[in-house]
Design goal:
Pfam families: T-box, T-box_assoc
GO molecular function, one term: DNA-binding transcription factor activity, RNA polymerase II-specific
CATH architecture of the domain at 152-331: Sandwich
Helix content: 25-40%
Protein name: Eomesodermin homolog a
Oligomer: single chain
Shape: globular
Subcellular location: Nucleus
Distance between the termini: 25 Å
Low-confidence stretches: 1-78, 80-147, 341-594
Keywords: DNA-binding, Nucleus, Transcription, Transcription regulation
Structural class: alpha+beta
DNA sequence: CTTTTCACAGTCGCGCGGATGGGA
DNA sequence: TCCCATCCGCGCGACTGTGAAAAG
């Protein structure tokens, strides 16, 4: 079978579930691809820092991305095994994928995620991220591929992902299947308007390790189980569809479910089978197909893969890190019922809640605590947290830096920095303010407000199927804004980024501009701070921390306030989110990965 | 001891059915 | 009076994290 008979809408995952990539075996071809994937990871894992890099640094950094980072591989790399890139992007330089490189599910069936060989960590000197956001590169063409313009993918709810990623995201898996939160949501540009594409998500092991939560942090614990069976892919229900369709609206995978039920792959196409305490990396695949959904194998460049490092997560059957739990409760609308004690937890005077932290970074002192309130509480509440102002503040504070895998400062700053490096699609029409999302062009006017305020008018139900009456809530929950926003869009510009709201931007613009210097801080700083933070907790009272961290909600004053970097971190975080949201850009990371 | 499973309570969206109002 | 569209309330089900019990 050459074609890939993606089912249309109904039962989109059938094909994959039946012939899914269970137990993929390694192959030399794919092995090389693995290598590239791994490299990508090295860069990606530090993605947050990458965003932190100023534009001027970007180019040099990209030249030798690995040198930027003190470590490579294990904790962060996308472990693709020997066949992780079963859908190698056509952007892979020198891809050796055969013409049928994009393996049909049937072909992939039986392959082992780990293969028989050793794990390949991609730590090569090469770099597969020419589209580094800071460079402003919009797309790239595969040499010799003859393919059209490359697609670009934006991670719509990236700030939220970063928030979780900062603490090492955990995703609950159950036998019945559990939805992801945050869920994957993308905006795609650069597709052929009339061509047909299948869009699907694959979840692959991020590394070959088994993880466990110990001493308040995640540590490796032996090797991962390499015999995991089950469906690893989720085809978007609207596949196949035209490029215009995919670009017209946000592509959300909110109904994607994660399960540890190995038998789920046979009867439930909505679920991806994962293994608890393993780290995974979701990947978005866009495959050009014929109108009937059959993959066109004539050109390997028709397959594109996008990986966002902030989407990495560890599958768990029960939450380990209470910071993650709190974030889920704070942001997931379905967990609203667990927020009831939140107010009481944080209604204490601020002086009681804030504890000076010796780990405060110098950088964070640049933030004026009051600024965040002066800026735009509206945005924070409605778009970022959907929480009362004081709760948002408390929530941020509740993030103990000592428990972070990544530095909040660097992460948030990275998000902010990335937001500034808006990618302006080449198709953008000059003079169209609707498309004017670049920073220099008052990107603050690209506020999400307009998208949120507009009532939903979905022609398709995949996006924002929940909270149709509350776009703000959906924003906070990770549901995209495209649906509401698209209503304002001109039909002639399905690929257009956000329109510019008529008002509401003045204050934000000013506030954002004030923070520009921060966003150009060196990335290395953020990383080193992170390492320091981790070390501090490790060397000190990890045991105590663990106790405090677990079930933190039962003792709200413990970890959150005592271990947190307190006001500086809080303000910084909030500021960064303020910077993200008013621009709207914060919700759209840009990656073009091989 | 760690990990998984299950029942539970709370929230919210959706669908259904009844009530209401306007037009033919 | 009848028909149709709209609005509103109710109940069901999906969804969440919690916490205890079970399993390994």
């Amino acid at each position: 079978m050459v074609g890939l008979p993606f089912p249309c809408r109904a039962g989109p995952g059938d094909t994959f579930s039946k012939t899914g990539p269970d137990g993929r075996k390694g192959s030399p071809v794919l092995g090389e691809d693995e290598l590239t994937s791994g490299r990508r990871y090295n860069l990606d894992e530090l993605g947050s820092d990458r965003y932190f890099i100023s534009s001027s640094q970007a180019s040099s950094d990209m030249a030798s991305p690995c040198s930027l980072f003190p470590y490579a591989g294990q904790t962060g790399s996308v472990y693709t095994g020997t066949t992780g890139s079963r859908y190698p992007a056509s952007l892979h330089y020198g891809s050796v994928l055969p013409p049928a490189g994009f393996s049909s599910p049937s072909v992939c069936t039986g392959r082992s995620q780990f293969g028989s060989g050793g794990y390949q960590f991609s730590q090569g000197p090469g770099c597969l991220y020419p589209s580094y956001p800071g460079t402003g590169i919009s797309s790239m063409s595969l040499p010799g591929s003859g393919a059209g313009p490359r697609a670009q993918v934006y991670l719509c709810n990236r700030p939220l992902w970063l928030k979780f990623h900062r603490h090492q995201t955990e995703m609950i898996i159950t036998k019945q299947g559990r939805r992801m939160f945050p869920f994957l949501s993308f905006n795609i540009t650069g597709l052929n308007l009339t061509a047909h594409y299948n869009v699907f998500v694959e979840v692959v092991l991020a590394d070959p390790n088994h993880w466990r939560f110990q001493g308040g942090k995640w540590v490796t614990c032996g090797k991962a189980d390499n015999n995991m069976q089950g469906n690893k892919m989720y085809v978007h229900p609207e596949s196949p569809n035209t490029g215009a369709h995919w670009m017209r609206q946000e592509i959300s995978f909110g109904k994607l479910k994660l399960t540890n039920n190995k038998g789920a792959n046979n009867n439930n196409t909505q679920m991806i089978v994962l293994q608890s305490l393993h780290k995974y990396q979701p990947r978005l695949h866009i495959v050009e197909v014929t109108e009937d959904g059959v993959e066109d194998m004539s050109n390997e460049a028709r397959t594109q893969t996008f990986t966002f490092p902030e989407n990495q997560f560890i599958a768990v059957t029960a939450y380990q890190n209470t910071d993650i739990t709190q974030l889920k409760i704070d942001h997931n609308p379905f967990a609203k019922g667990f927020r009831d004690n939140y107010d009481s937890m944080y209604t204490a005077p601020e002086s009681d809640r804030l504890t000076p932290s010796p780990t405060d970074s110098p950088r964070s002192t640049q933030i004026v605590p009051g600024a965040r309130y002066a800026m735009q509480p509206f945005f924070q509440d409605q778009f970022v947290n959907n929480l009362p102002q004081n709760r948002f503040y408390s929530s941020e504070r509740a993030v103990p830096q000592t428990n972070s895998l990544l530095s909040p400062q660097s992460e948030d700053a990275a998000a902010a920095a990335s937001a500034q490096r808006w990618f302006v699609p080449p198709v953008q029409q000059p003079g169209s303010n609707k498309l004017d999302l670049s920073y220099d062009n008052d990107y603050s006017t690209s506020s999400l407000l307009s998208y949120g305020i507009k009532p939903l008018s979905l022609q398709t139900s995949h996006a924002l199927s929940y909270y149709p009456d509350s776009a703000f809530a959906s924003m906070a929950a990770g549901w995209g804004t495209r649906s509401s926003y698209q209503r304002k869009m001109t039909t002639g510009l399905p690929w257009s980024p956000r329109p510019s709201p008529p008002a509401f931007a003045e204050d934000q613009l000013g506030a954002n501009k004030d923070k520009l210097p921060e966003e150009t801080a060196p990335s290395a700083t953020g990383w080193m701070e992170t390492s320091h933070s981790l070390k501090s907790v490790d060397s000190s009272d990890a045991g105590v921390y663990s106790m405090v961290c677990k079930r933190r909600r039962m003792s709200p004053g413990a970890s959150s306030t005592e271990n947190s970097p307190t006001i500086k971190c809080e303000d910084l975080t909030a500021e960064d989110y303020n910077k993200d949201n008013p621009k709207g850009t914060g919700y759209y990371a840009f990656y073009t990965s091989p």
